[in-house]
From TrEMBL:
Pfam families: HATPase_c, HisKA, TPR_12, TPR_8. SMART domains: HATPase_c, HisKA, TPR. Residues 351-394, 433-474, 533-560 form a coiled coil. It comes from Marivirga sericea. TPR repeats lie at residues 124-157, 204-237, 284-317. It is an enzyme of class 2 (transferase). The keyword Transferase applies. Keywords: Coiled coil, Kinase, Membrane, Phosphoprotein, TPR repeat, Transferase, Transmembrane, Transmembrane helix, Two-component regulatory system. This is histidine kinase.
Amino acid sequence: MKFKNSVIFFFIITALPYSLKGQNQAVIDSLKNTLEGAGPSEKIDTYNQLAWEYRKSFPDSTVIFSQKAIEIASESVELNEKVVKSLNFKGVGHFYGGENIIAFDYYQQAKDSALIYGDSLQYGYSLNNIGRLYFNQGNYVAAYDNFFKALEIFKGIGDDVSISYGYKSLAELYQSQDNLQKALEMSLKTAEIRQSFDDPSGIISIYLEIADIYGQMENYNNSLKYFTEAYEVAAKINDEANLAIIKLSIASMNAKRGQLKIALTNANEALGFASQAKNVNLIIQIYSLLGEIHFYRNEYDQARNYFLKVNDLASNNDVTFERDAYLYLSKIFEKQANVQEAFDYFKMYSVLKEKTENVNAAREIERLEGRLLLEAKEKENNLLKQNEDTYKQVIQKQKAFNIALTATILLAFILLVIIWITANRRRKHNKILQLKNNKIQDQQEKITLQNKEIKGQNDELLIRNKELDDLNNEKDSLLSLVAHDMKAPFHRITGLTELLRLSGLREEQNQYVSMIRNNAKHGAYLINDLLDVNSMATEKEELKSERIELKQLLENTASNFVIELTNKQIECKIECEPNLLVRTDLNYVNRILENLVSNAIKFSYLESEVILRAGVNKNNFWISVKDFGPGFTEEDKNNLFKKFKKLTAKPTGGESSNGLGLAIVKTLMDRLEGKIDLQTELGKYSEFTLYFPFLEE
């Protein structure tokens, strides 16, 4: 069964008058209340909002309120830029009032003013509004051009409200051209943006539009999905008019698909909502649909009753529904064999059909005339703009010539002044330069005399330096001679004390002998350190590369200090992996370690530890010596490697310290091109870490 319903759901959504939700009375009342005591700027905004609310139901009020906003904005230079929005709204009022040419003039004024005041948003709305005028007049190419330009401006600004408005305009244009896929794409983008707004009516509107497009594409599942989503939003705000529209649209879709029973249920639900909303236009459409459903269900009496109701209500409203009702009544009486009634209703149908065709023809003529007038108006505006641009160019050229001439004269005058000032300054500078030259000559003569004096002093210094070098060499020779001569007596004293100790002395005598022996050893150590320092200062030994095993090196060093470690009950720990082979100067490394380990033992507390560690890195190898003694102060760190410098830390067992050990370590490390790192904490520990480069064979 083919359902010949003239009120398909596309017609329902697009043909319903805006008066369904034409204005929000609560919003209007709130806006009017804000006018009392408001300043000029607030009044302009309020009048603009009132104009927007009245646009669909009372467009004359839109024109009045927007004109009031224009008048206030024109009274103050600071508020002039607000006139752009008011001009757009006044054009909207004339547009909804059917005065397209006047609306076009105000849209053009708004567009020009937007350029003057740099209002990109209102410039975009002006283009979109002009596009809607062209769209209504059937000039789809011009409409698309204006819609597209407006959308690009909205995107550039990043205003979501205006972007959704631009997408919706393009969706309506594509839909009118049966490009349903592009219309759907634009509508889905609009819905995605509007979902983030607190605007239920706007969301319902776009959901219905998407459902309509899916319906035209015969994708009824998706169509029903969006009808359902629109219904849920409308139910939350108890929007009875939109609830009726949604149910009526679903009923039309089901009727078109031949599901008359479901369609009948949907239509009765729609009638309930429309009756609560007291919306006559909706009730007429629902009665018409119910009549058609009963007709195709062969329920002619019920169908006749609904079409008679349509005629009762539509006589003062939409002639289209009254005309279609007459046609169906004619068919019903024909099926009931009542030829006379069928003929009478068909005659009434024919009369209304001719009347609607004449009205449509008149509207088409009016639309075409309006389109021609719009095109003529646009051409006139373009011609005026071209002439204005030409005049502006001539004026600009004349201005440019006058400016250039004035600038030339001014530059010539400035140039003459600069030349005079420059010449005057040059004369003064020449005098100053002459005086400076005279001073420079005097200074050069003085410098020459001073250079001669300096040369004489330098010659005298060279002689004195030579004498100091000779004295220093004599000092080194004397020091070496004295140290060598004193070394043997100290060794003999040490040997004699050893013999005395073995000769069976009393305990008191043994103590005196031990004191003599220790002092002799300390003297011998001092002599050795002095000889080392002296030899290092006077001559540099050539480095000898040898392969050594690090763990064995640490063990040998520790074995040299067994007596000292035992005397202070110190444990020497060695932490090193076996078989780590490196190449270096063994003599230098031994002397460095002996000095560091000796110091570590001297400055370690009784019954503590000395830790020797070693390892190999990619570019070097390292050895560390850690003791748990008094540590070093910040002042100690500054004097650490200086000769004969006494530090705050003292040996813990009464040992002597001459201040040469670390100076020797630093000198030897510099010769090996190594690096010394010290980690210490006062009163707890000190750890010297030595980094040695690998020597070549």
